[in-house]
Amino acid sequence: MSRIGKLPIPVPDGVDIDFKGTHMTVKGGRGQLELDVHPEMLIKVEEGLITVSRPTEQTRHRALHGLTRSLIANMVEGVSKGFTKDLELVGVGYRASKQGNDLQLNVGYSHPVKYATPEGITIEVPEPVKISVSGYDKELVGRVASQIRKVRPPEPYKGKGIMYKGEKIKRKAGKSGKAATS
Q1: Inside any domain, residue 124
Q2: Is the residue at 1 inside a domain?
Q3: Across the chain, which distance is largest between two alpha carbons, in Å?
Q4: Does 105 score more than 60 pLDDT?
Q5: Vertex 120, ends 11 and 91: CA angle to 5°?
Q6: What's this model's pTM, rounded to 2 decimal places?
């Protein structure tokens, strides 16, 4: 039995679950998310709990079991609490700012890079070297943070770039063979 798949999903107050056929809709205070569940997965929506089970022990069903449960749990958590990813800019002169709803990045190029914020995402810049991406869809929050990071990924020689908060960059020695300092 899948350790993740067998856990029931608690539904907090203020979250409405609508499950018809294979289509699930989750509504909450932050928004609404929809998911087409695999038709072979067995889902029970009871008072305050959602349980996911599988019909057989086939490899395909075992793989779908944990995945389906995680997707539904992320939907429930997203519409009730939301998700946040934090990014840090490391480098001399690197900074971020908000211009209207867009994010403007100065990260060592000859021009500032503008990033248009997609719908359902909130980007905040609490400090010029910190960016906070938040929203109710976990997949979209992660994708937006990844796209911002791709503007200037961290490099291993000087450690400059846009990185996730707490991310460690494995440093390289460089051309002269000197040991990299951390």
Answers
A1: yes
A2: no
A3: 66
A4: yes
A5: 115
A6: 0.88
Residues 71 and 107 in one domain: no
CATH number, domain containing residue 39: 3.90.930.12
| DSSP one-letter code for 73 | H
Under 8 Å between Cβ of 38 and 27: no
The DSSP symbol for 52 reads E
Locate 164 and state its tokens. 């996730």
Q: Quick check: 71 pLDDT over 90?
A: yes
CA distance 92 to 161: 10
Same-domain check for residues 65 and 89:
no
Segment 14-41 mean pLDDT: 93
50 and 89 share one domain: no
Average pLDDT, the chain: 92
Scan for tokens 């810049």, then name that residue: 125
Query: Is 179 a member of any domain?
Result: no
What is the average pLDDT across 54-77? 94
Three-state secondary-structure class, residue 37: coil
Q: Give the span between the Cα atoms of 73 and 10, in whole angstroms.
A: 8
Cα–chain center distance at 128: 22
The model's confidence at residue 138, banded by pLDDT at 50, 70 and 90, is very high
Q: What are the residues facing 131 on neighbouring strands?
A: 87
